[in-house]
Amino acid sequence: MNPDDLLFAETHEWIRLEDTDGEKIAVVGITAFAVEQLVDVTYLEMQPVGTPASAGKEIGEIESVKAVSSIISPVDGEVIAVNEELAKNLQLLSDDPYQAGWMAKIRIQDEAAIEKLMDRAAYEAQCAEEG
Amino acid sequence: MNESLRTTALHSWHVEQGARLVDFAGWEMPVQYNSIVEEHLATRQGAGLFDVSHMGRVRFDGAGAARFLDRLLTRRVLDLQVGQIRYSLITNEEGNVLDDVLVYHLQTPSEIRYHMLVVNASNRLKILDWLTSHQTAEDEVQISDCTLETAMIAVQGPHALQIVDPLVDVDLNTLRYYQGVVTRQMGKPCTVSRTGYTGEDGVELIVHADKANQVVNNLFASGRDLGIRPVGLGARDTLRLEAALPLYGHELDESTSPFQAGLDFAVNLEDAQQNPRQFVGCEALAEQAQQPRHQVRVGLVLEGRRAAREGHTVHAGAEQVGVVTSGSFSPTLQYPIAMAYLNVQDSPSTAEPGMELEVDIRGTRQTAKVTALPFYRRDKSS
Q1: What mean pLDDT, rounded, does chain B reach?
Q2: How many Cβ atoms are within 10 Å of B144's Cβ, its own excluded?
Q3: Chain A partners of B305 at a C-beta cutoff of 8 Å?
Q4: Strand-pair category, B27-32 with B20-24
Q5: B88: three-class secondary structure by DSSP
Q6: Cβ–Cβ gap B306/A65 under 8 Å
Q7: Are B40 and B330 in contact (CB under 8 A)?
Q8: ipTM
Q9: Mutate to test the interface with A, among B21, B328, B337 (most CBs of A within 10 A)
Q10: pLDDT value at B147 more than 60
Q11: pLDDT band at residue A130 using 50, 70 and 90 as cut-offs
Q12: Residues of B in contact with A39 (CB under 8 A)
């Protein structure tokens, strides 16, 4: 079940908006649906702290036995943290995709892209269609 | 899903099993039921059941069947005994590979002898055209494509023989590797061969399409306590890669010769009496056999966890020395492995086991060590 407090991208990333010292931060991960589609994840590499993030552009890659996929930034800003623990323990993606399985934190510089993200109901409708 | 795709007799069974279906060579086939890694390991440790009905099955009847095939295959067919199976290639006039196949010499219970080819799904129509275009009235051979009216099921792994044995009217322990027999499965006609594409011992069954579901149910009943599970094309690919078995479209294609692919064993330039054979491509291959090799197929073991994939380039310092043909994270070995073609014209030592090279993985160089093939060899002592 997807949490209600998240926003979702068409490319199966989620964000949780946080307010830290007056700055808007997006915590980014991939959804349980995406993890289930990948199944056999073997490798994750996120771009390092300090990398500029543009909505719709790659901020990391995730590899399964079968193929490589991009992690797409849902927002515009800058990567300010990367979950180093996750790359060492990819099982966290299946066990807890929305908390321990977070991938990066992005300091949001332009909020326009957030408008295009989906709420839970819209995202789940998309997943149902993709089967 | 695209409605023009062909489906096998087991299609609804795949759906019931929760398979993820993909287009493979025009067939809607299961790529995985759940986890490729779990399906892969189940095959290595217990038994995997694969629907390989998409592979082409072509039957050759008539007094001239062996002679006809001997003219088209790189391996000898004339001396193939009843019950024997050989891996062979079909080459064009240039000696390049049109397909890799298994050729069977079989006999029905009513003692009619015939030959059969099992060809790649992606090459079936091309090979059927090739066969008929080389057929003349004097050949005394009837060619029939049995693919759509039959199903083919592979059971592979250390428990495969134990699972299939109670179901068939033949003692599988008398069937040696690369032998086949026309027999019965629970009273119904069935061709059983001790063949496969996983690096494990195992069998492949060919039955009439309308019996396929019954056979699968029987296999699961027989294998319930022996770890049988359905396995998709995803694990079939990682299993064959660990066993270093070439896959048409990756290691083999119409610009590759058998020698470049390291498949010297699959070319018989001479017949059983050591006279030169005459088959399509033999002149080109006889000439190539005298030349030094410019290209070799090698194994690569990569550092880290990122897998090299088909098309990634291989480098020795600044110089590109090869290209990856297949690569994946190895479920058995738990590190990334790949097969690659290396150019050895200038420096033969490039392809020696232990040589450190680099693979360009999407812009990043990853250290890769040349290793002897195969990556995985089953323990034959047990």
Answers
A1: 96
A2: 13
A3: 42-43, 63
A4: antiparallel
A5: strand
A6: no
A7: no
A8: 0.83
A9: B328
A10: yes
A11: confident
A12: 32, 34-37
